[in-house]
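Re-run requested by the PI after the first attempt was lost when the workstation crashed. Everything re-entered from the original request form. Ligand of interest: guanosine-5'-triphosphate.
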Amino acid sequence: MKCATVAIIGRPSAGKSTLLNTICEMKVSITASTPQTTRNAIRGIYTDARGQLIFTDTPGFHLSEKTLNKRLQDTALKSLEESDAVLYIIDSKRSAGEEELALVSHIAKIKTPVICVINKADIIRDSEEEAVKAFLAEHLPDRPVLKASAKLDEGVDEILIELFKIAPEGELLYPPDAYTDQNLEFRISEIIREKAINLVTEEIPHAIYVTIEDIEHTEATNTIWIRAAIIVERDTQKGIVVGKGGANITKIRKGAEPEIRQIFSGKKLRLDLRVKAQDKWRNNSVVLDKILR
Ligand SMILES: Nc1nc2c(ncn2[C@@H]2O[C@H](COP(=O)(O)OP(=O)(O)OP(=O)(O)O)[C@@H](O)[C@H]2O)c(=O)[nH]1
């Protein structure tokens, strides 16, 4: 049996979460069209006859001095050093700028084996593919380079083959049917956060986090009650998340309910969502410790 921990790294929106979800065939990491929505080092677990791969979905690597972004960067780099393999995802639709250079220079220094994946192959142009290949040949020579579409599940089997080549021999760390080690509250809060950030635009997605205030099982009615709060930074943002006459909050609830129901199959669900403002939470280390475990 083989068993490896694999850190997925790449610029915001490169498709890391999409790839993880495709590999693990379950929603373990939220995806959104707004960059930098992955905040935690989340694990997805893939097991087959060859062994087990445990993925860490590193937050988007971002050059910024803001406290939240600095923490994201620390989490990302630490998970690279601690893993058996690194999967470096490159968005073929964006040209390499300062950020990609900073990232690649870190990757070049680490001892962990690296596999490069040129993602979004379904929409790539020849010239874009050539540009990415030249960039990789210059900065990460001799590392395997694969082409994939995380979205369409193309080239993903080849990624698994390469990863199992690198994976050390070892016993499985998780049961074969496990796909994530995230705790229940975290999974629920991420489902709600995904629905919320997909409804709002511009600056607000990054100003949102979700806390689960209470989960209760009423046996008499076989109902799970979940009370959760969507936290924003300013009162003006509260109104936007709630929407006209509560329209947005209803959409968030209706979007989240079916996915949460899957977690509690066979039970009825009541989801109670509130929106609260907490000034400057992104610079508050108590809040950051709570959400960036
Ligand atoms: N066409 C195409 N789009 C993709 C592919 N993979 C991801 N995307 C899209 O790219 C966007 C970003 O994908 P994510 O998986 O959230 O990216 P991420 O790297 O996890 O982003 P962060 O959380 O910001 O670090 C989403 O709109 C995806 O649907 C792909 O293979 N092809």
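Saved to the shared folder this time. The chain has nine helices and nine strands.
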